[in-house]
């Protein structure tokens, strides 16, 4: 028996992680725009500003490419390069994060279940298909195709309406403080922060629960006390 009637999950970094050949996509992006490659994916990531911006994925990557181009003294169109990189990526090349499958099974045994992802259907549905999530969850909401994404309440409101559960009886599980935890709070849900490492700081946010692995989700579903750590 779960303490919650509804259990919602984030997708990227929570239920799944990428397994595709990033180097191949990187090289294909340069070939697509007709310039010789410079740098490599490992040099691009540190130049990005924090976690991906679901409101402007291309712009987020373009800023990194602009910095990388400046370091290599190359004048390029970073937006065109970022657009080509996104297009070359194999969005269906993903795998479950540790504990995700067991967490999904446990959630489905005890509550209504759903997925709320900030990406658009075009980018996220291949991941959902690869993982078979449409058969494991009762509803999937692609907030990237809505007027407002997380941390706005609209994606959560739509999911709760589809499941016919109240915000106060629902918990949202996600890895992003500023999108998942803030969004759950805005919509009136409890939250589980799946932190990237044990030393990560909550930056002043107040998740209802903090876990280092989805293997520990039972402590949330069966727990009698709220815990922020």
TrEMBL record:
Keywords: Hydrolase, Magnesium. Transmembrane segments: none annotated. Its cofactor is Mg(2+). Pfam families: Hydrolase. InterPro entries: HAD-like_hydrolase, HAD-like_sf, HAD-SF_hydro_IA, HAD_sf. The keyword Hydrolase applies. The keyword GTP-binding does not apply. Belongs to the HAD-like hydrolase superfamily. This is Putative hydrolase of the HAD superfamily. It comes from Halobaculum gomorrense.
């Amino acid at each position: 028996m779960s303490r919650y009637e509804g259990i919602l999950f984030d997708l990227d970094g929570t239920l799944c992680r990428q397994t595709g050949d990033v180097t191949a996509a990187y090289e294909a992006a340069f070939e697509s725009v007709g310039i010789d490659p410079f740098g490599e994916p490992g040099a691009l990531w540190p130049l990005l500003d924090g976690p991906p911006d679901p409101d402007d994925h291309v712009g987020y990557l373009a800023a990194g490419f602009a910095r990388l181009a400046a370091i290599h003294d190359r004048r390029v169109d970073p937006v065109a390069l970022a657009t080509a990189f996104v297009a070359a990526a194999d969005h269906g090349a993903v795998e479950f994060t540790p504990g995700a499958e067991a967490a999904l099974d446990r959630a489905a045994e005890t509550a209504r279940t759903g997925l709320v992802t900030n990406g658009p259907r075009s980018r996220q549905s291949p991941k959902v298909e690869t993982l078979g999530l449409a058969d494991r969850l009762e509803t999937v909401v692609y907030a990237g195709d809505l007027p407002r994404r997380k941390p706005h309440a609209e994606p959560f409101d739509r999911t709760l309406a589809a499941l016919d559960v109240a915000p106060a009886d629902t918990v949202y599980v996600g890895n992003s403080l500023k999108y998942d935890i803030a969004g759950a709070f805005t919509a009136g849900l409890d939250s589980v922060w799946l932190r990237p490492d044990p030393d990560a700081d909550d930056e002043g946010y107040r998740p209802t629960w903090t876990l280092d692995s989805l293997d520990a989700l039972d402590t949330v579903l069966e727990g009698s006390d709220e815990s922020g750590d």
